[in-house]
Task: structure prediction
Amino acid sequence: MKKGKPALVKRLASEASFEFDPFQVFEVRHRACSLLYVTVKCGRNISKGSSTKDLMDTPDPYVRLRLPNSPDGRRKTMHYDNEINPKWEESFRFYLDTDKNNTLYLDLMDANVISDEVIDTQEFKLNNLEPGRAEHITFKFKESSEVDVDLKLV
Ligand SMILES: [Ca+2]
Result:
């Protein structure tokens, strides 16, 4: 055996022992991760908030979901042209860190050729959800618009 080799092996072994960080293991074990399922079901009487605006361009609605603390936390449904009672029936799954305060933001959007417009935004505090139980919620936007959403935390 060559003379320098045992020293090198010993040095590598001591470096490896420094990689074990008990605080890191502690944190990983205590981080609670849940899955949030959001189903955007349908909308009723979608309006931009004024009949003049609606007459100039019938809403082409879609819903944008934003969950700031979640990876991949921005999603959206399809949009339907000139449809004030859209049936989306689209489901989305989000990873949720339940150690944090999580708020889901729902933007009711109007699709346009050049740039889409936010009609209105609502929010929902997810820490109020009971795990395993589906909640059926109707969100109201502006005067008349309603959107039915199912939320479930597992
Ligand atoms: Ca439009």
